Amino acid sequence: MATGALVSFAVERIGDMLIQEANFFKGVRGQVERLQSDLKAMQCFLEEADKKQEEDPRVRDWVSAIREAVYEAEDIIDMFILDAQSLRTHSFPERAFKKLIKRYKVGKKVEAIQLGLQDISNRREALGIPNIGEGTSLSRSAQMLQDLRRSTPHAEEHVVVGLKKDVNKLVEKLIREGDQRRRVISLVGMGGIGKTTLAKKVYNHTKVLEHFPDCCAWAYVSQDCRPRDVYMQIIKQVCTSTIDQQVLEKVEKLQEHELGDFLREHLKEKRYLIVLDDIWSCADWDCLAKVSNNDPDCLGNVFPDGGKGSRILLTTRHKDVALQADARSIPQEMKLLSKQESWDLFRRKAFLDHVDEDRYPPDLEKLGREMVDKCNRLPLAIVVLGGLLSRNMSHTEWRKVRDNINTYLAKEGSQIGVMTVLNLSYIVLPSYLKPCFLHLSLFPEDYVISTRKLFLLWIAEGFVLSEQAGQQSMKVTVEAYLNELVNRNLIQVVRMSVNARVVECRVHDLVRELAVRKAKEQNFFGTHDIADPLSSSTSNSSKCRRQSIYSDMERYASVEISTPYLRSLLFFKLGRETCRISQLDFIGKCFKILRVLDLEGVKVESLPSIVGKLIHLRYLGLRRTGLKLLPLSIGNLRSLQTLDVKNLKQVPNVIWKVQNMRHLYMEGQKDVIPLRIDTLKNLQVLSGITFEQWIVNNSSKLTCLRKLKLEGRCEVEGVKFSNSIAKLCGLKSLYLKTSYESSIPSLAMNSCLHLSKLDIKGHMQKLLETFQFPPNLSQLTLEACKLDCDPMPILEKLPNLLTLRLRAESYLGTELHVSANGFPLLKVLQLFELSKVIELNIENGAIPWLIQLHSHFSTRISGVDKLPNLVEVKLVEDSEKISVFPAWEKFLRRHRFSEYHLYWDISWETNRYGHIEFWIRRKKGLTSDQSSTVAAEKLALLLSRSEPTRKS
């Protein structure tokens, strides 16, 4: 990680330890405090050294020496605390004697580190490393604060340049009527050249949609090719409309060869299009297609040739893979962009404010063209560089980047050139972002990352300092870090929430490769790959701080572990075999100072009690493990901040001992036993506690609680329950979910001044009156409430409501009515699965700021043409044939835009439940003023056709 950030973390951690473990440090406190001071002194010049180490190997060695010294200091202190803790079970004389010996040894080790740091410091001036402020820009911190506050831009479409001819050529290959044999069409090119971008463009092309109307799928393959996962990706897309959820669950339990047979049977009578994105080797193709011999005419067993013109679209970096897949089909090799196309792509990314005007500052244009020339016409390199420069329009900064780029791109070979351009993005990252970026290297290639989990991991790793977070929570700070990495084009957004927050993300493979290289250089992490789990991928594995395990647990557990100072251990893509409890013992025995342990997806019978000895553990992830019970020793994890587990039989009543707990997720408890949690004064998120468990705790002690989710059978008295919620002065989010046989208690939450998000799932005798809702409520979701009366007359009076979701069975009536001036600030209105609602009436002047409207297609909506700010409409139809045509054609014809560059866009897709989703979006683009009429005609055409299957 960035050494400056590492030192900052170490300084804060040592300070915390001196306070929390005061008794342990008696006798060595002075030495540890001096060590802390020495590390603080080094912070003043490490930022400049971090930059210079890319150019000067002497500085790189100097920074590495500091990093190793800090690692050693952390190890000594953590091991000392662990040893001191273990002595508590000894008799007093023995304990006192051993403490003296251990303190003496620790004192000597600390002295040795101090001498080493002094020697390192003395070498600084000889290497010409200045202090911060000497020759560096003073505007960087101001820019950092501005960037942190900037929200993530939600681009409506990707910037695509230079692919028009490629698109047309590829579309022609896919829909060619003369050849009815199944063909594999391959896109071949180096990483970052745009193979996936082109494939997506073609996959969603109108002609392709019409040619393959009902059997299409897209599957990511990647280096770690797993046929079973690929088959399931395809099955879930091509079979959703023909099999129900129960059958799909049975299919998921099939073996790999059975899945292949199932897929073949489903495809053999259909004309299908399947995209296999990112195949790395001929062996991977043979394994996926189940090719049994070397005959070029053998098409494999999984993807049958039914003589209907089926196509497989394959993307790969290797031409031999394309020829192996179909020797009779000529691969389409992607070319680099032309010089003009390269500039067009760069200007769209770098000159965000002037992209339509075609004018730029002359000095920046000259520098930009010089840098674009050095990107070797590779799209990814240009996009990353443009994103980097878009953040600073200073001629000085652009000139610095131009001068650096000459050095970094001096080596020959486009692959190296890309890495050096991406490396430039890493160099200019602020020190607080570098460890977050390196942490992304732990995740497998093409892995979709949950940001909720990512935030919790970053917090547990200590990537957020108290002084950086300030008055805001650490979660807010790490979310700002993620948004900045997105803005710098180092993270790709996969899915966003309705309020434009990133929910899922991934890292491009080349960007991940950069993160892996940097992480290995700094002993940040190592991996054990499934191909060779017995050899770590890092050259100095005994010193690495983090490991990702891509092999199966049993093989990894059998390896002689050589990383005693490991801090983080994460498991990915493991087999379905259940791990015995003995196979997990090695974690507690070998990694005694572990801070992060994520076993998500590892099938385990139970957790060994030795886990309770990991007193430095901060994060314990146990989702999707099948675990039913936690050991009582879990109460000994005094440093634990996050426990993430689901569907336990019961939660042991020892959680109250874990005083540092901040995030407790325990949804789906089967047996409800008393659970004390009111001792957890640092608790910020509590998710999954039952109503019965909650009501016996003193909620006034939970002063830090910000998010609460209650579930299960509810038999508590309304006033008592309301009072327990009212005592949570800082509560911002509340989720109430009752079991089928019980009801939500009567509530009065008008005293919850900070509560902004409320979710209610369960039967309600009566909807709250307007004055009983939290006064600052901005987001409300109702589901299964079974309300008989129209809720709109009450809800429309909520003054600060921005988002309203009415889900299945929230309302049992047939009409909803919004009166004039109702919902003065509402921006999002979503009506999900309200099967009985046939009409929504919106009076003139209601919902003036509505941007997004989701509804059932058959619901008649009057007044929609009076919504001046409406941008997006989503209509869901769950029948096989659309038979109802409401006022949307009229709306599109009447609702035109005075702005020349706005138009309506129509698209559709089939969701995971097999329902058709129509999207009507207002977009930007240079179109004619007839666009509203065209959109209406397109909608009418779509409605007259058979059921669509995916996005148009």
Number of strands: 31
The number of helical runs is 30
Helix content: 25-40%
Strand percentage: 5-15%
Distance between the termini: 44 Å
- Average residue pLDDT: 78
- As an assembly, this protein is single chain
Low-confidence blocks of residues: 132-157, 406-416, 530-539, 880-886, 897-902, 924-930, 943-952
- The radius of gyration over CA amounts to 30 Å
> What composes the largest sheet?
18 strands, mixed
Shape: globular
Q: What structural class results from the helix and strand content?
A: alpha/beta
What do these coordinates show?
This protein is an alpha/beta fold and 952 residues long. It is built from 30 helices and 31 strands. Helices cover 37% and strands 15% of the residues. The strands form 5 sheets. It has an 18-stranded mixed β-sheet. Helix 27 links the parallel strand 17 and strand 18.
